[in-house]
Amino acid sequence: MTQKIVPNIWCDRNAAEAGEFYSRALPWTRSHIGLRYPADMPTPDDGPPSDLAGEPVVVDVDVAGFHITLMNVDDTYHPTPAISLMLNFDPELFDGDAEAARAALEKTWTALSDGGQALMPLDAYPFSPYYG
User: Which H helix or E strand runs over 63?
Assistant: First the structure.
């Protein structure tokens, strides 16, 4: 199946760093630079800032087969909590081992929390026994 919608997240000059962070924090994840700005890029009035010359434009992140694009630009826009992506830690993905699934979730949650990305506690909610 081909992914029909690819989330694009605008980053303030730190897309490569964000891609590396998510590659370390999330299981089944890798990132790579998909495109760079030209090294000798002029600064047009309506173009990207010249301090991005030679830096990544696009960082592709693959999370368990799901593609996300990080756009390396400026501080015009910022990611907000209005966008939520969910990663499933179903025990079936861990050969039916519920303890392994829970351990992977807790390890991921710790990594995201250390990076300042966790916005709600990992806890029981009416819609899930263990969610964050």
Answer: strand 56-63
